[in-house]
Amino acid sequence: MWNALSILVLPPPSRQNFVHIVSGNTISSRDIFGSHIIPPLPPRGLFSSHYHAVYIWAVWSLVVMRWLLRLSAAVVVAFWVMEYVRVNYLHKAFIFDRNHLQVIGKEVIAQHPDGNSTAILMGVYDRLKEEYGDYINDYNEDDWVFNNAGNAMGTMFVLHASITEYLIFFGTAIGTEGHTGTHFSDDYFLILAGNQTAAPPNARQPEVYLPGDSHHLPCGYNKQYSMPSDSWALELAQGYIPTMLPFGFLEVVTSTMDYYTLAKTVKISAVNIVKNLLKGKL
User: Fold this and answer.
1) Torsion of Cα atoms, 214 then 211 then 106 then 98, to 10°
2) The pTM is what?
3) Would you say the C-alpha torsion 113, 117, 123, 125 has a positive or negative sign?
4) Helix, coil or strand: residue 37
5) Under a CB-based contact definition with an 8 Å cutoff, are residues 213 and 191 in contact?
6) Per-position b or e across 43-80, b if 16+ CB within 10 A of its CB
7) Which end is more exposed in the chain, N or C (fewer Cβ atoms within 10 Å of the end residue's Cβ)?
8) pLDDT tens digits for 9-54?
9) pLDDT tens per residue across span 165-205
10) Neighbouring-strand partners of residue 149
């Protein structure tokens, strides 16, 4: 009876092991757990075959539970190691300094008191290209793409993307509002034109960021934010950049169905990451 039940109800990879384990009237849990934590099986005939089937599935559930606990422990350990590396060592791979980028932004903004966003963006781009050379992508109007993330929609131009950093122009011609996302990286949002308002969940009044201000969103934190029309920023993220990608891609699947933009964004990001890896830049 036990052999038949084990063959019928257990998944194929486990049939042979369970036929061996449940042969007779008892189950030896040592082969599964390394210690006897499952009580002996009552003698045959005392319970119906339904009980025997349930008993087998109970044992199988405990096996699955053990592997889930192992997996959870592995995830916790991996997270701790990644956080330790991020805090203590990851900065050695950075090439951008948020304070220096803010200086560049303020100098270019000061050169355009009329607040012309196009002139400011191009002025910042020229300065970045001059200072960082091939680490900054060549400018092409066709490389601007939509970005839908956290229920906010804007447009972006990828200036640099690598494993540990990305630098982009991000903004909106008509205004947007949404969730910043919660990221395994620090995010610095330097306003170049327009403004940004932001608020954590316990705020009663908004934080207001004007041209020249840098909004720092620390690793693991999140806020609600909004930007009015003709607002643009230079955004620097430093940390584990690949962990941010699902936030930027998920709404394509769940909402917009804009697979062309997804493919274009993936191509730009992948080409940049590989190009910088070949240069030795993580």
Assistant:
1) 20
2) 0.76
3) positive
4) coil
5) yes
6) eeeeeeeeebeebbeebbeeeeeeeeeeeeeeeeeeee
7) N
8) 344 444 344 434 444 444 444 444 444 444 555 555 545 566 667 7
9) 999 999 999 999 999 999 999 999 999 999 999 999 999 99
10) 152
Find the farthest-apart pair of alpha carbons in the chain and give their distance in angstroms, rounded: 91
What angle separates helix 49-88 from helix 2-9, to the nearest 10 degrees? Answer: 50
What is the C-alpha radius of gyration for the chain, rounded to an integer number of angstroms? Answer: 28
**Amino acid at residue number 215:** H
| Of residues 266, 210, 234, the one with CA closest to residue 132 | 234
Sketch the domain layout of the chain as residue ranges: 2-88, 94-278
Give the integer Cα–Cα distance in Å for 249 and 256: 10
Tokens 């061996």 correspond to what residue?
20
